[in-house]
Amino acid sequence: MICLDTNILYNYMFKTELTEKAILKSYAHEGFAITTIVLNELIYIVLAKVTGKRGYALRRYVKARGYPSEIIDKVITVFEQLEIAVLPDVTDPRLVLETARRLSTPTSRRDDSPNL
Question: Is beta strand 2-3 parallel, antiparallel or unpaired with respect to 32-34?
Fold first, then answer.
């Protein structure tokens, strides 16, 4: 199983100088997977590419118009072509927060931070 990142899928979907490196079909026998975070990022960057909008302008676009079917269709097509599996998200948010707390410097820690 090969786990793919957003930039690989982006370069596979859109012709860029890195497209040749992102040709994945020769590795398809390995099986591909992504996390739900990568799926969310992929939808966002495809939407940004197609609309030409970024940041708050993109958020306003989605709020007013939703996600165009063209975007969803592009992502679905890639999933079908590469038979990509989406891995379940089993991250415990408390573990993430506790790790962040342990890695924080003493001066950056706030007294009103929640107890975990």
Answer: parallel
**Predicted local confidence at residue 18, as pLDDT:** 76
Would strands 84-86 and 2-3 be described as parallel, antiparallel, or unpaired? unpaired
* pLDDT band at 21; cut points 50, 70, 90: confident
Name the pLDDT band for 19 (thresholds 50, 70, 90). confident
Q: What is the 3-state secondary structure (H, E, C) of the chain?
A: CEECCHHHHHHHHCCCCCCHHHCCHHHHHHCEEECHHHHHHHHHHHHHHHHCCCHHHHHHHHHHHCCCHHHHHHHHHHHHHHCEEECCCCCCHHHHHHHHHHHCCCCCCCCCCCCC
